[in-house]
Design brief:
The protein is α/β, with parallel strands linked by helices. The protein has one domain (2-21, 33-201): 3-Layer(aba) Sandwich (Rossmann fold), CATH 3.40.50.300. It has helices at residues 13-24, 39-44, 46-70, 81-94, 100-114, 130-140, 150-165, 186-201; strands at residues 2-7, 27-29, 75-78, 122-127, 171-176. It has a 5-stranded parallel sheet, sandwiched between helices.
Length: 204
């Protein structure tokens, strides 16, 4: 079974992935942050490195998705292949940080790859306000994220909401992380686990 967690930068995807994996004894696939050869360059010079970064993510997440589908275990994935295509790449294009030529090339490749990809059995979307995202980003203190602008996060949030409002590829669970502090409150984590149980096993 394939579970995936979607959400903006700083929404808590990695944390919740780890917590649910520990609870259910699931395997994990985390976003490749530390070994990503483009991420530091991208945040330093977005226009120059946007296409390279998105192609890297497309390749990385396609590989992950194939590994998950070939696994006999239940796997929980930190961020999906769809988020790059429907949120991050179009946002970079609309902000003038990716050329139309590069965006069309990228999206054509995504459409080809998507035909080989199965959607997650359950998608968990972490909905968060921009102020919540900023607070989480500041608390984790990744140096390269210090340059992220508020308007960038706001644009991403708007695209996430538009994408989720039309998502129909499988089961969807939305968690409002402004009002659920699962990272520090066991009771809040328990509420999420109960909802996951309900989606996966029909326990209401």
């Amino acid at each position: 079974m394939h579970i995936a967690i979607a959400g903006n930068i700083g929404a808590g995807k990695t944390t919740l992935t780890g917590l649910l994996a520990k609870h259910y004894n699931w395997d994990t696939h985390f976003e490749d942050v530390d070994d990503n050869p483009y991420l530091l360059d991208f945040y330093d010079e977005m226009q120059r490195w946007s296409f390279n970064l998105q192609i890297y993510y497309l390749n990385s997440r396609f590989t992950q998705t194939q590994e998950i589908r070939n696994s006999s275990k239940t796997v929980i994935q930190d961020r999906t292949i769809y988020e790059d295509a429907y949120i991050f790449a179009p946002n970079l294009h609309s902000m003038g940080l990716m050329t139309t030529r590069d965006f069309e090339n990228y999206f054509s490749l995504f459409n080809l790859i998507e035909s080989f990809v199965s959607a997650p059995d359950l998608l968990i979307y972490l909905r968060a306000s921009v102020s919540k995202l900023v607070n989480n980003i500041q608390n984790r203190g990744r140096e390269y994220e210090e340059s992220i602008r508020l308007d960038y996060l706001k644009r991403l949030n708007e695209r996430y909401e538009a994408w989720i409002s039309t998502y129909d590829k499988g089961k969807l669970l939305i968690i409002d992380v402004d009002n659920n502090h699962f990272n520090e409150n066991q009771e809040d984590l328990g509420k999420i686990i109960s909802k996951v149980d309900g989606e996966l096993h029909g326990l209401f």
